[in-house]
Amino acid sequence: MKSRRRHEDEPRRVVITGIGIISPAGVGKDAFWDVLRNGRSCVDYITRFDTEHTNIKIAAEIKKQILPRYPKPKTPRDLSRVARYALLAAHLALQDSKLDLKSVSPSRIGTVIGTSVGGLEDAGNSYNRFVLRAPKGVGIDADFTLDYQLSFFTGSLVKNINVTYGLEGRSDLISTGCAASADAIGNAFENIQYNSADIILAGGTEAPINLYTLKAFDVMLALSTRNDSPEKASRPFDRKRSGFVMGEGAAILVLEELEHAKQRGAHIYCEVAAYQTSCDAYHQTASDPKQEQAARAIMEALRSSDLPSESVAYVSAHGTSTPINDRQETYLIKKVFDHYAYSLPISSIKSMVGHSSGAAGAMQAVSCALIFEYNTVPPTINYEYPDPECDLDYVPNQARPWDGSVILQNTFGFSGKNTALIYRRFEN
Amino acid sequence: MKRVVITGIGTVTPAGLGKKAFLRALSGGKSTIGRSSLSLQNESIDVAAEIHHFDIKEFAKRKHYRFMDRASSFCFVASKLALKDAGLSVGKLNTENIAVCIGTFLGSVHWAEPQYNHYYDNRDEDVHRFTAIIGYFGNLVGNVTIPLGIHGRGFTVLNSDLAGCDAIGHGFESIQRGKTEISLVGGTEAPITQAVFHLFNRAGLLARHAEHPEKASRPFDLHRSGFVLAEGCWMLVLESMDHALKRDAPVYAEIVGYSPSCNVNSAQAMRNVLSTANIAPDAVGYISANGLATIDGDRREARAIKAVFGETANMIPVSSIKSIFGHPLGAGGSLQAASNALVINNRVIPPTINLDSPDPEFELDFVPNKPRQMDVNVVLQHTASLTGKNSAILYRRFQI
Predict the structure, then answer these.
(1) How close, in Å, is residue B202 to chain A by CA atoms?
(2) Which residue from A244, A263, A290, B5 has the fewest beta carbons nearer than 10 Å?
C-alpha cells in the first residue's frame, strides 16, 4: 500500500527500451545510425512523381524497394502510406524491445502518435477517386466499409497498431504540427510517470512527399530549391542554407516504466528525464524573435528534472535549414545557456534525413537514444560557410565521440509551438 | 492530485451562440436538425444540424481570421465565450499556466475540400498560400493561443469521435498533475461538406428519415437508422479547485475521473472511471450516453450500461442529446460535457427526443421526449468511437 501511494504522488521514472524507425536511411535503427554516424545525405531527386513542372525536385524519400512486406495489419485492405510507416515502425520497436506482449496487461500498454497532416495525401487521392469521379447516385457499398474510409483520415493511425498488437491502454493521436511527435513522446512520458500506463509506443509518422504538400510549403518559400545538388540542399546553420528539404517516415520508441523494464531485464537505451512545452502566442508562421516561451520550456524541463543547465552535454537541434529558424534557435540556445552555449555540441540530423514534419521529433528522439548507445554524436553535414549569426559548435560534417550524460532535444512547430525533451544516461 | 472544477462554458451550436441558446435547445428538447444547405441530389439523405449566419469577421481581427477555417472559427468564438462565462480575462492571468487542448475528427476539411476540388478537378497548378498552415491540425490550437495570448501547453487531439472527450481528459489530467492551473478544453467540428456526407453515407452510417429532418436522429428508438452529421464547438474552462476558490468563481461541477480504453468492450471505460474515482455505481444519478442512433452502436452501449450497473441499470436515467444536436463527430464528447455541467448545475436532465417506439430490447430509462427535473449529484459520461474505442468522464456536484 505504501509503494502505491508513492506512485500516486511522486512521478515514476520512464526509460526507453525499444526503437523502431523507418526513415529515408532505410528500415530499422541500424540503417538510420549508419547514415548519422557516417554523415551521409539521404536527399535525392524525387522519384515518386514527375517533377518536370515543379519548383521542388528534391526530397529525402523512402525508396519503394526497401519497404518490406511485413507486418500484416489486421485492418483494411489498403492502408494509407502514413499508416503503413507507423505500423512498420511499431513492429520494429516491439521487436527491438523484446517485450513479450502476453506478459503485459493489454490495458496497461498503449500507443501515442504525433502527426502533422496524417493521411492528407490519401485523403486527397480518395477525394479525387471516390467523390469527384464517383458514379452518380451510387448507393451503399458493402466494400466501402468504415474502416476503409477512415484509413484515409488520421484516426486510423493509432487504431491500426492497437488492433494489430492487441493494445488496449492509454492511446492518443495528437497534432502540434512539426512538434507533434516530440509532444507524443512527452505525453506518453507523463502518462507513464503518473501511472496511467506502464508501456507506451510513442512517436510520429508522416508521409508528406506528394505534389500537393510540397506545393503547399513551396508557396511559403519554406523549401530549398537547390535542385542541382540534392545532397547539399539541407545545410542547417550554414550561411548558404536556403530552406528545408522534405523528409518522411515514422519513428516509434517503447517508453517503459523503470521497474517494469528492470523486472523483465529489458535493454535500457536511456531515461526520459523531462518534458515541457509552450506556445509563443506570437504568429502562425513566425516564432517570437525573443524566444521567451521556447526558453521557458527548456528551463522548466531542466528544473523539473533537477538538472543544472551545465549538465546538458549535447543539443539535438530542430535545425530545419531555413534562414530564420536556425538563427533563432542559435539565439535560443545562447539565451538559455549563456556562455556555456559556446562549449556545447549541437547538431541537426535534418542535414542528413531531411525534415519529416510530424515525425521529425521522434527521429530526433531515436537519434538521442542511439547517441547513448554508441557514445558518439552525429554531425551537422553540409556545414561549409560559417554564418556570423550562427556561431556555435554544430559538430560540422563529422561525427564525434561523446560521453556526456544529458541531452536536450529542441522541437518546434508552426503557430509558435516549442517542445523540449531531456534524456539522461541511465543510471540505477 | 489536485481537484479540478468546471467554471466556464462556451458554445457555438446550431441552436445559436452561447450557453443560453444551448440550454434552451437542451432542456426544451428542441431538435436543431434541418435540411442541409448543401446540394445533395446524389445522396439518399440531405439532413444535418448546421450553423447558419455565422461570420467570423464579427468576432476576430483580419490578421487572425485569415488563418481560420470554419472549425477554427467556431473554436475561437467558443473559447472566448467560455472564458467570459468563467469571468476570466486572459490578460490578468498567468498566461503560462493555461493549457489548450482541442479535439477534432476532421479538422479543416471544410476549408480543404474546396482546395482539393480546385486542385484535383481543375488541375490548377497553384495551391492556396496558407495551405500548409490552415491544412494542418495543430492550427486549431494556434488560432486560440495566438489571438488570446495564451502561452501554456497546447495540442490538438485527433482521436476520431472521441477527440473532444479525450481533449477534456487531457486538460483535466494536466491540472490534476499540477502542470497547469487552467485548461481551455473541448472539441470542434465543421464536417458538413459533400465529401464527408458522401463518405459516411456510402458507408451506411447516416440516418435515413429524410421526410422530417427533426425526426431523423432517434437514438435507442426501434426505428433508428444512423446518425445525423452536425457541426459546432463546445469549450469548457477547467480550473484547479484552489484557483477557482481563490477568485470565488461559481462552479458548475467537479470532474472526478477520466478513463479512456481501447478495449472494444464499452463497459471497460465506465468501470475504470468509477473505480479510479472511487465512486460506487449506485451513486450515479444520470448517464450521458453516446447514443449515436446506429443500430449496433446503441445496442452495444445499452448492453454495456447493463453490464456495469446490473439489475439497477433501469433505475438510472440515461439520455442521448445527439437526438437533439446530431453527431458533431470529434466535438461529440464535448457536447456531452457541456450538457453534463449544466445538468448538475441546473438540475434538469435533457431528454432523448424522437423516442416514439423505444427498442424493447434495451429496457432502460432513456428520459423519453421530455426533460426531467432532478437533483443529480454524479453524472457518468460515456463516449464511444466508430472504431471501437471508449472514454468515460465522471462529474460530481461540487462541494469543498
Answers:
(1) 5
(2) A263
Report the catalytic residues of A.
178, 318, 355
- From chain A, pick out residues whose CB is under 8 angstroms from the CB of B105: 153, 155
Which parts of chain A register pLDDT below 70? 1-9, 65-78, 120-155
Q: What is the ipTM of this complex?
A: 0.95
Distance CA(B57)–CA(B55), nearest Å, equals 5
For A248, B7, B132, the CA distances from A226, given in Å and listed in that order, are 19, 53, 21
Burial of A100 (0-12, 13-18, 19+ CB in 10 A): exposed
- Alpha-carbon gap, residue B156 to B137, rounded angstroms: 7
CB contact under 8 A, B132 and A146: no
User: Model confidence over B165-223: pLDDT tens digits?
Assistant: 999 999 999 999 999 999 999 999 999 998 888 888 878 889 987 789 999 999 999 99
CB B294 within 8 A of CB B205: yes
Distance (Å, whole) CA A177 – CA A419: 11
b (16+ CB within 10 A) / e for A67-80 = eeeebebebbeebb
CA geometry: angle A411, A416, A418, nearest 5 deg: 30
Nearest neighbour of B159 by CB, restricted to A131, A172, A180: A172
Separation CA B34–CA B36 (nearest Å): 6
pLDDT digit string, tens, across residues B261-307? 887 777 999 999 999 999 999 999 999 999 999 999 999 999 999 99
CB < 8 Å to A177, chain B: 136-139
- In single-letter form, the type of residue at position B302 comes to A
Residues 6 or more apart whose Cβ sits within 8 Å of residue B245: B400
A94, exposed or middle or buried, with CB in 10 Å at 0-12, 13-18, 19+?
buried
Q: Which of B119, B142, B143 sits opposite A212 (nearest CB)?
A: B119
